[in-house]
Amino acid sequence: MLRSLSSGISGMKNNQIKMDVIANNVANVGTTAFKSGRTRFQDIFSQTLRGASAPEPNGRGGVNPSQIGLGMQTAGIDTMMGQGAPQPTERALDFMVSGETFFVLSDGSKQVYTRDGSMSFDASVPDKTDANIKRRNIVSSTGLKLMGYQIESVDNDGKVKYKNPAALEEITIPDSYKGKDESGNDVYIKLNNFSVDKDGTVVGVFEDGTKQEFGKIATAAFSNPAGLLKVGNNNYLPSANSGDALTLKDPNTESTGNNDILQGYLEMSNVDLANEFTDMIVTSRSFQANSRSITTSDEMLQELLNLKR
Question: What is the pLDDT, as a whole number, of residue 165?
């Protein structure tokens, strides 16, 4: 009797875990770039009542083993990294990266990774070389800076050379640049707007029609993205099984990723509500059935106790 009670308890306990995962998926159906979870079960060690026996030559045939399972357990909770649908926003500071790559964010001391490309500007600060030019960082909703590759130099043909890709830096947008008027005097030309190309190149357009590159947004890939740790705020950290970030390719000679960055789009959650509600029904019935097996086992124990009357 105790085996059936233990099996029923394990079924209830682990189906509750599955319901927790389902409820979290449903709660995050509107969360930008959320990746749904999936619960997997496996059986526990079985008690062998009788071992197997091989067939005898010119004698008895073989006998299969007789085993009683001792319940079930949670085998794992997987992060489903499938891409969510693109949602157009027509906002210049909304970005979406396709495939299984991530934006890189930093608080100045450590880096985290995200699929959530809903960014904004922070307050402007004077440029380090010219106080008349103000610069703003592109930041996440929690103030983490969007990281990328800074420009080292521009040759006479306008070809940009980026700095050493091993050291990512924040992407900053100037509000103007120093030019010359018709008399040769220094003037500051205001920024009109900016755009982000598919390869992450940030290009500004100024009031006089001049275009300038401000840098290139970095993207990170992982050998096993499903192994990343969720740390809240739509951010991830590498784990022992995700591998290190494969983001530091040379932007002067290679693409910084195999995937495109789309400006004016956000990635929606990949939660499938129809599938979640179906799993919710199955999980609820499984929980109910396991509780019934405990009730039935208790009734059988009660009948056994009633023999002593």
Answer: 65
Give the separation between CA 284 and CA 7, rounded to whole angstroms.
Answer: 17
Closest CA to 35 of 241, 270, 277: 270
pTM of this structure: 0.88
How far is CA 105 from each of CA 116, 144, 247, rounded to the nearest angstrom?
11, 6, 12
User: Tokens for 257?
Assistant: 């990723």
DSSP E strands in 80-175: the ranges are: 86-88, 95-97, 102-106, 111-114, 120-121, 125-126, 134-139, 145-149, 151-154, 160-162, 169-170, 172-174
Cα–Cα distance for residue pair 222/257, rounded to 1 Å: 11
How many other C-beta atoms lie within 10 A of the C-beta of residue 113?
Answer: 24
How do residues 91-119 score in pLDDT, each as one tens digit?
Answer: 999 999 988 899 999 998 999 999 999 99
Residue 293 has pLDDT above 70, yes or no: yes
Question: CB of 33 within 8 A of CB of 102?
Answer: no
Of the candidates 6, 1, 2, which has an alpha carbon nearest to the alpha carbon of residue 290?
6
- Provide φ and ψ at 6, rounded to 5°: -65, -40
* CA dist., res. 145 & res. 235, Å (int): 13
From residue 278, alpha-carbon distances to 82, 202, 235, 283, 284 in Å are: 19, 44, 28, 9, 10
**DSSP run (H or E) holding 262:** strand 261-263
What pLDDT is attached to residue 259? 67
pLDDT-derived band at 308 (thresholds 50, 70, 90) equals confident
Judge whether residue 292 has pLDDT over 90.
Answer: yes
